[in-house]
């Protein structure tokens, strides 16, 4: 043992890394109490740990995700599924919500709290890494056929890139006992999901609701029920809905 | 669930971790992207032999082996040998009485990244897996195909070299 080595550094390190069991920790604590070498080594381990909080974590970008999904798709002919969502750290909306004044769209309060809660639950679950997309494509002519054979209805698929809401893909989800189509759009760093399923009632004007900071706009058209869910502020989400309804 | 869906559910959530490790091992975005793509295709092939356990460690093990293949092909990057490494440690200035302080002074992103990048590859991967991926010793041992004792000694060497390098920089 030299002045720089007390023979316990790996135990000390294991303790600081949370890898030491209680018995080992107790034995080490006795030694550590009056060991200057341990004190210094602790300073190294803690210091490196703190410095490395600044290290770059290299994340896969959306392009790599698409490339990997494509490669896997090429190996086996099924669409790649459930990649991590490329949007991290969704921006929270700020003062814009208060400015949402001039809305042409007539929006009534939505009176189905169960459904709203289920939609927001599905949306939040989808935003967890690896759950957003079953099919990754910005092309509506790819997304629409993907739903064929997976659903007992043909959801309308529109790309709203021109209106600032590019289509990024779609997935299947489950809502109130039935399979539904979910179209996923992006707007800046926000994600908008449009849930689509066959309507049970007559066509209706849009109605909206808000749960846990998420906004929902629901309407019916052409025998389909549609619900847009997002953390976008209400005015921006209504702009999305307006764009969707106006597009043929 | 078909085996393809099962594979995607296991593998794709680890894409960030795969890319991060590949990027730190190869030092290049383009190489890391190639490594990740190749590793994911390999993982799909090996998937029937995946026996459960940590899917992240399993994927990262394949990524790591693929990255080593790429490094070898690229420039025959030699593993630093034990003796050479200790010489390296000995050459670096002593961290002084307060290594934590010089480390904190080193803590801007570019300098920290440079310090990590300068580590020999097997120390670098061990440190990245522990500090950036927060893998357990056991999982790091699996990914890097060495005993847990080796993981522990590599981790300590990596930390000591970083502390000394930061101290040397601080003195300049």
Report the sheet-strand fraction of chain B.
under 5%
Q: What is the oligomeric state here?
A: heterodimer
- Structural classification of chain A: alpha+beta
Number of helices of chain B: 10
The strand order across the widest sheet of chain A is 1-6-7-8-5-4-3-2
Largest sheet of chain B, in brief, is:
none
Regions of chain B with pLDDT < 50 over 5+ consecutive residues? Answer: 77-88
Fraction in helix of chain B: over 70%
- What is the CA-CA span between the terminal residues of chain B? 59 Å
Order of helices and strands of chain B: HHHHHHHHHH
Q: What's the Cα radius of gyration of chain B?
A: 17 Å
Q: Would you list the SSEs of chain A in sequence order as H and E? A: HHHHEHEHEEEEEEH
Describe the largest sheet of chain A: 8 strands, mixed
**Helix/strand-derived class of chain B?**
mainly alpha
| Broad shape of chain A | elongated
Q: Which bin fits the share of residues in helices of chain A?
A: 25-40%
Distance between the termini of chain A: 81 Å
- Cα shape of chain B: elongated
User: What count of helical segments of chain A does DSSP give?
Assistant: 7
Name the average pLDDT of chain A.
Answer: 76
Q: Greatest chain-chain interface?
A: A-B, 42 and 56 residues
């Amino acid at each position: 043992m030299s002045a720089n080595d007390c023979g316990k550094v790996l135990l000390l390190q294991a303790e600081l890394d949370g890898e030491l069991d209680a018995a080992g920790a107790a034995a080490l604590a006795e030694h550590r109490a009056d060991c200057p070498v341990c004190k210094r080594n602790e300073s190294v381990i803690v210091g490196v740990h703190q410095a490395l909080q600044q290290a770059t974590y290299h994340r896969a970008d959306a392009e790599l995700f698409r490339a990997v999904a494509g490669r896997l798709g090429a190996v086996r002919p099924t669409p790649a599924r459930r990649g991590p969502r490329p949007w991290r750290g969704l921006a929270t909306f700020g003062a814009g919500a208060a400015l949402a004044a001039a809305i042409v769209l007539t929006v009534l309060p939505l009176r189905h709290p169960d459904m709203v809660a289920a939609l927001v639950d599905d949306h939040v679950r989808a935003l967890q890494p690896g759950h957003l997309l079953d099919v990754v494509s910005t092309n509506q002519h790819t997304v629409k056929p993907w739903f064929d054979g997976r659903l007992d209805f043909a959801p309308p698929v529109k790309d709203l890139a021109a209106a600032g809401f590019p289509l990024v893909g779609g997935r299947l989800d489950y809502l109130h006992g039935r399979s539904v189509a979910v179209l996923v759009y992006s707007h800046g760093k926000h994600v908008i999901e449009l849930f689509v399923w066959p309507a049970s009632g007559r066509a209706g004007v849009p109605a909206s609701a808000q749960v846990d900071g998420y906004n929902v706009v629901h309407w019916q058209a052409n025998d389909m029920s549609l619900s847009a869910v997002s953390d976008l502020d209400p005015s921006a989400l209504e702009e999305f809905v307006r764009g969707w309804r106006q597009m043929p | 669930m078909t085996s393809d869906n099962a594979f995607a559910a296991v593998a794709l959530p680890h894409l960030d971790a795969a890319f991060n490790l590949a990027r730190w091992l190869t030092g290049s975005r383009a190489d890391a992207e190639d490594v990740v793509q190749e590793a994911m295709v390999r993982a799909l092939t090996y998937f029937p032999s995946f026996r459960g356990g940590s899917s992240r460690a399993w994927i990262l093990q394949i990524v790591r082996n693929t990255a080593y293949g790429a490094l070898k092909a690229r420039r025959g990057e030699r593993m630093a040998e034990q003796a050479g490494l200790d010489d390296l440690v000995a050459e670096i200035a002593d961290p002084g009485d307060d290594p934590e302080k010089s480390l904190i002074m080193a803590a801007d992103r570019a300098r920290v990244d440079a310090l990590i990048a300068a580590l020999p590859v097997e120390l670098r991967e061990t440190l990245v897996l522990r500090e950036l991926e927060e893998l357990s010793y056991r999982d790091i041992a699996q990914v890097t195909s060495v005993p847990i004792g080796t993981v522990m000694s590599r981790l300590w060497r990596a930390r000591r070299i970083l502390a000394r390098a930061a101290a040397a920089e601080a003195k300049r």
